[in-house]
Amino acid sequence: MITTHTLDNKPKNESIATLLAFILLPLSGLATDIYIPSLPSMAKSLAISDTHVQATLSLFLISYGVSQLFIGSILDSFGRYKLSLYALLIFALASLVIASTHNIYLIYLMRIIHGITTGAIIVAKRAYFVDMYQGEKLKHYLSLFTIIWSSGPIVAPFVGGYLQTAFGWESNFYFLAFYGFLMFVLEWLYSGETIKSYSEFKLKKITSIYIDMIKTSSFSLGIVMLGLAYSMVMVYNMTGPFILEHEMHLSPVIVGYSSLFLGLAWMTGGFISKGVLHFPFYHKMGVNLGLQLAFAVIMLITSAYVSNIFTILFFAFLIHTSAGFTFNNYFSYCLARFPKNAGIASGLTGGITYVIVSSLSYAVVALFPAHGETELSYSYASLIIPSVIIMAIIYTLRKPEEMD
Question: Could you point out which of 78, 143, 241, 251 has its C-alpha 20 to 30 Å from the C-alpha of 368?
Fold first, then answer.
């Protein structure tokens, strides 16, 4: 692609800027998971149905995904720093609006703004690492993405459960506002522009890059695998609190601890993936998906005889660990696939992934409503089986040099 000019840009303090980039990577998980223990209370407080309050998650995911489809080309053409800085400020203001209103439609609008601004921030920070690092160091950082990202789902519901119990659901969004303002100040003080080659913002050229990326089957099918893997987590996030609070009569704090436990599962999958980084790709992915399918089948069978919080969390932990393993493998690959257009590759990867997640998870939840472990096992199976099929297609289409 033709570029307008090239600069040797560096942040004001590279080590602190890198640390801040890692801190911001879990923002999408933080923005969804912190108020998961509050979903039943929000529905009651706002006098709306469970489905309506679940839509706040779906709207965030849709806007987060769609925004990433376009934001990458803007970041490649106009830079990462200022756009992500402004996005942080807007994110914080939108959080304050949600915390101070009981109008569900205004909340919907603010959650859409949350999704758009989070998309800009996350894509910019992913591209930051491709801008700043190369070779083995870049591979090392990319392999940490899923592990670092999983800290959001681990910490957020744990904190959210206590905030809900002590102060109510609004406190979750006051917390997000504080986080946004704090990161805005730190980014302003220590970070800076990192892009080295500004691309011309020409629609025809940008469109051709998008088409070339999507036509690369290993890249596009890899994104589908990402969407299926993360949908498993989101399906639990949308149904788990209602199963535990409504059906099992447990407290929001317990829901928070449960989500923390499953966040550890996602992180465990990332660590396992990093530990077997040099193992044959298709062999380890085949074993992982085979185990995941077996876990879902056993969960379904045993749910007819025993079902409680311990059995739900046991099987969900195993399935989420496998999902984290899949996600980490394919996320690293997709981000490093097109280093010359890091912003577009990052945006396209995250964008399509979250569009898949938002639509697929909502459809699965509608098909298998939150009544208990049996429905949850059906939900998992409905996502794992397509994963096995897609992986088989990827294996069939692999190039000779990719043979295990």
Answer: 251
Q: How far is CA 65 from CA 13, 72, 161, 274, 346, in A?
A: 30, 12, 27, 26, 11
Q: Is the CA virtual torsion 67, 48, 237, 88 positive or negative?
A: positive
What is the pLDDT at residue 274?
Answer: 80
| pLDDT of amino acid 3 | 45
CATH class of 11-402: mainly alpha
Which residue ranges in the chain fall short of pLDDT 50?
A: 1-7
CA dihedral 196, 202, 208, 212 (to 10 degrees): 20
CB atoms closer than 10 angstroms to residue 2: 8
**Cross-strand bridge partners of residue 5:** 198
Judged on CB neighbours under 10 Å (0-12, 13-18, 19+), 378 is middle
Residue 326 makes CB contacts below 8 A (sequence gap 6+) with 225, 226, 228, 229, 269, 285, 288, 289, 292, 387
168: left (phi over 0), alpha (psi -120 to 50) or beta: left
The pLDDT, as a whole number, for residue 93 is 97
pLDDT at 6: 47
**pLDDT of amino acid 208:** 83
Among the listed residues 332, 334, 1, 392, the one whose alpha carbon sits nearest the alpha carbon of residue 199: 1
| Domain residue ranges in the chain | 11-402
Q: Cβ atoms within 10 A of the Cβ of 62, count?
A: 20
d(CA 117, CA 64): 8
Given this model, what pLDDT does residue 64 score?
A: 87
